[in-house]
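Q: Can I see a sequence and its folded structure?
A: Here is a first one.
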Amino acid sequence: MNALKLAVAVLVVSSFTWESSYSQETQPSAPGAGQGSALNDSEAVDGVTPYSKATLSQWILYPRDQGSCGPLGRHGPIVLETYFRTGVNFPIGGGIYNEVLNAGWNVGGGGRSLFFNPEATKAWVIDLGISNVHYNSSDRSPQVSLFNLPYLDRSGQFGFGVNRSITIPALDLGLISLNQTFVNMSGGKEYYLLGDAFCQDRQWRIGGDVGGRYGTCKGEFVGFPNISNTIGAIFLTLHSDLIIPWGKCNLFGGVRLEWDYTWSDILQRQNNSDLASFGLLFNGGLQF
């Protein structure tokens, strides 16, 4: 009998303990309760640090606000662009080249770094690229007098299968074409007239650059091998671009005006072989 009473007592105590524990676990928390102990992704759970996916820093990614424009912080972002340019170059000054060359075709490409102000409405720009310009002549009559020209004679007149280097004292030549290849570096500034660099809408900007070029040129002549030489130039530009958001990047396109002055002595010092030109180019690329 005593054993039966003991069993009943144990069952009653166990039932009361289970009900008390269940009511504590299911009771809703008061508003604001437990906020101080909430775990985030960077905190450990049971002593184990949760897995976190590695990403680039926010300074590099620079997340763009999807719905607002305006100040973005104390320091402005840095934006990169890749571009392609092509268009027409018109000779407008210089010596013999200005007299005989037709308009040439200009092709180039490169990259730009834009250093924005906090409002992302202005940016200093560094531009590094390459370009090539090809001109054809409108007059191939002998107009260029050159002296003491080195020439490799391949006629074999000095013996069967024998070539010989000779010097031609004087020769009048006609120009067929001129080709220029440059490495370009410039600096300038951009101004956004519509929107800013991070508005999720169309933007319009204008800007200008000043810089220098260094490269080589090759002249093709009537009845004589090509002549090559190194050249240098300075240039000034103005441009205007329309920018359209495209996913995580921006597409841009517009027009670019260039004034260029190139120094060269490919036609020897007695001939003025400098060339001033004006370029009207299409400018397009990707901003990210």
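Q: Show me another, different protein.
A: A second, unrelated one:
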Amino acid sequence: MANYEHDGLSLYYDVVGSGPNVLCVHGASGTGAYEWSGLAATLSDHYRMIIPDLRGHGASDHRPGQVSIELVNGDLLALIEHDGAARPHVLGFSFGSEVVLDLELTNPGTCASLVLLSPGLGDPKSSVPTREQLVSGWPMTLRRLHADRHGEDHWLELMVELCERAGRRPKADLAALAEIDCPILVVVGDRDDPRRVRQADLVVATHPRCTLVTVEGGRHAVHKDRADQVGAAVVSFLDSISGMLGPSDQAL
């Protein structure tokens, strides 16, 4: 368990396992430990998992109004430099998948590979949950993750900001996505929101080195619903990529 400083914030991260680096980016209102503890049990025998709490989440500092994808990616670049984890594999779930996709789009060559779980590509036509809808429907488990560090109502202010930003965010540039140089694995549950399933198909149709795994019975948190199946798919993908990288390409 460690902290690093960036943009005037103290940001928390953990490291589990040993081997090639895998930077793991959790979803909206999640935390690193909550999101990745299951997959860590599968991956950590062969991979070194770098697991941050994003700004505003968990044990990391928060600055109201500054939880944009662009600022989060600035934090992640600082973490990669701080940790010495040059060109890691990068794994993201849901909001985290949008973060890591944008990371490689705006900083080409940062990632050895991308693993996108339940990804989104941005869609300004989609309805954004209101404060009232969040209060009535957001999972209690996710609400409680931040109470000790930030207060009981922090989750709501965080989600309102993230949802408002999502409503203003343009769709991903598919031409730019097609030019991403690293391999991509997309994993989606067949019981996820149909829009997510369609967007997963779109990533695969757009990127020439993209592999799709559709998990039968998996819902949005597919890595929690079907942890063994998702873990096996991720390990198989990362092993195949690691085998193609030379020693100079893999962080020690």
